Amino acid sequence: DTAVSQTPKYLVTQMGNDKSIKCEQNLGHDTMYWYKQDSKKFLKIMFSYNNKELIINETVPNRFSPKSPDKAHLNLHINSLELGDSAVYFCASSHRSPQAFFGQGTRLTVV
Amino acid sequence: QKEVEQNSGPLSVPEGAIASLNCTYSDRGSQSFFWYRQYSGKSPELIMSIYSNGDKEDGRFTAQLNKASQYVSLLIRDSQPSDSATYLCAVLNRDDKIIFGKGTRLHILP
């Protein structure tokens, strides 16, 4: 029973393509996040949703668009992929607490 | 000034010794502090949280918080090779954002 699951785990794609990463949590949490971890291992928040509502939108290119169809899902769509988008993207969730539970990550490689 | 700062390491500690990891933060209004452990190629996992000044112990781990000096530390007693990982300090700031440090790589020498 994976608590926070992301798909795919690995994604290799060409520059200019559009891709999506899906995230689902079965913990009943009300807040979900997307984080980006670059090659230097710096983990930075991108978006945060609470009860399907966007509450944090950090300075990321508008090529990145999160979508939350319901409380248990937060997907990340990326348009016109660039080389610099290569990173590990982590989905996370929390419930009335700042303690976040992370998914296993999606390693995105743009070639 | 970066919001959450950690020495990137690597920090090498002999097996059985105490590993000491430090973190400083810039937002004086921060109230919640966390230590995450991340093994190579894996996701971060929460190992300690601390909310008030002083020490908090959980098994071999002790978190220490000093809000006046704006630092939080993690001590690992009786270090084991399985403790070798990157340790991420995270702070919930006054804007309710969780800000992570860049992490300290810890290497326990057998």
Q: What can you see in these coordinates?
A:
The complex is a heterodimer of chains A (111) and B (110). In chain A, strands 2, 4, 5, 6, 9, 10 and 11 form a seven-stranded mixed β-sheet that branches. Chain A is built from no helices and eleven strands. Chain A is globular and about 40 Å long. The mean pLDDT of chain A is 90. Chain A is an all-beta fold and 111 residues long. Chain B has 110 residues and is an all-beta fold. Chain B has no helices and eleven strands. Chain B has strands spanning 4-5, 11-14, 19-25, 32-38, 45-50, 54-58, 61-66, 71-76, 85-92, 98-100, 104-109. In chain B, strands 2, 4, 5, 9, 10 and 11 form a six-stranded mixed β-sheet that branches. A five-stranded antiparallel β-sheet of chain B has the order 1-3-8-7-6, with no helix packed on it. The mean pLDDT of chain B is 93. The chains are: A mainly beta (111), B mainly beta (110). Chains A and B meet through strand 5 and strand 10 of A and strand 4, strand 5, strand 9 and strand 10 of B.
Produce a short descriptive summary:
The complex is a heterodimer of chains A (111) and B (110). Chain A is mostly beta strands and 111 residues long.
